[in-house]
Amino acid sequence: MKKFIFLLILILTASGTALYFGWIRLPENTQAVVYSNITGYEDKVIKSGSFHWRWQKLIPKSFTLHTFDSTAHTADVVSEGNLPSGDVYSSIISGNPDFAYSISFSIKYTIDSSLLPQLLEKGGITPETLASWYEEKDRFIESTGKNFINSMKSSSASITDSSELEKKLGDYLLSKIENITVSSITLNSFNIPDMDLYNEAKRQYLNVLKNRENMVLQSETRSARENAELERQLELLEKYGELLTKYPILLEYIRANPEMDILKFNTERLKE
Q1: What is the number of other CB atoms lying within 10 angstroms of the CB of residue 249?
Q2: What's the CA gap between 19 and 31, in Å, rounded?
Q3: Residue 157, CB half-sphere, CA atoms under 13 Å: how many?
Q4: Are 187 and 160 spatial neighbours (Cβ–Cβ below 8 Å)?
């Protein structure tokens, strides 16, 4: 009986020791990738708030736990400015409408935990480089968000409903950004000009430019025609002068017969 009790105590002690040393304790709001020299990287990430135990942890120097912060990260994007040539187009519309725009949104996200083992194994990320990974992703989100805004500026349709704009923005970001899990996308503020009015102002301005170009072209054509006519007349007068120089008696004839339009007669002959 004593041997049984002793054996039971020994088993319970060994089990408790194994349980204690194999127990993985994670700080709050963290997740981890398990690595063992024996089994390699585990495919699934373990997260705080649940019980985790691994037998590999019982073997000295064979177990590594790569712990990552799982707190959601927030990126804030603000973009403002004027629609292309907005000031120019506004000048020809009554009331000089404002074609300035501004938009601000926030996206709360975390790194896609299912990809952590793969990224860690390939050297794409470590717990120490997680902050810089988020910084790089923030810059990409900002660039992508501004691309969305630019696509809106070039669109002919106006969006005045914030929920519609927020949905379009969310769909666009999710289609472009990889390796993240989005918790929320919030449109903080937006001011989008009347795109119908902007496009009408643009149309009118381009018409004004076209009309001016036509007027300049017509003026140049008329000027060229007048110059050609002047050159032709000068050429006729030059030939007429040569004729009078060659036949000076014609001057006497013209003086004696002023009723005869000898100039017209000779210019018509010169034309031939």
Answers
A1: 8
A2: 21
A3: 5
A4: no
110: number of Cβ within 10 Å: 17
* Distance in angstroms (rounded) separating the CA atoms of residues 41 and 36: 7
What residues have CB less than 8 Å from 249, skipping those under 6 apart? none
**Alpha carbons 204 and 8: distance in angstroms, whole number:** 95
Contact between 229 and 223 (Cβ < 8 Å): no
| pTM for this entry | 0.64
Q: Whole-number mean pLDDT of the chain?
A: 80
Q: For residue 35, what is the enclosing H or E element?
A: strand 30-36
**Distances from the Cα of 22 to the Cαs of 13, 16, 100, in angstroms?**
14, 10, 61
Residue 264 burial (C-beta neighbours within 10 Å; 0-12, 13-18, 19+): exposed
Provide the token pair at 213: 């170009």
Q: Which residue has the higher pLDDT, 45 or 192?
A: 45
Do the beta carbons of residue 186 and residue 77 sit within 8 Å?
A: no
DSSP-based three-state secondary structure for 101:
strand
Of all residues in the chain, the percent with pLDDT exceeding 90 is 17
Q: What angle is formed at CA 233 by the lines to CA 228 and CA 236, rounded to 5 degrees?
A: 130
Which amino acid appears at position 120 of this protein?
Answer: L
| Backbone dihedral angles phi then psi of residue 154, each to the nearest 5 degrees | -85, -5
Query: 3-class DSSP state for residue 158?
Result: coil
Q: Collapsing DSSP states into helix, strand and coil, what is residue 45?
A: coil
Sole residue written with tokens 């709050």: 28
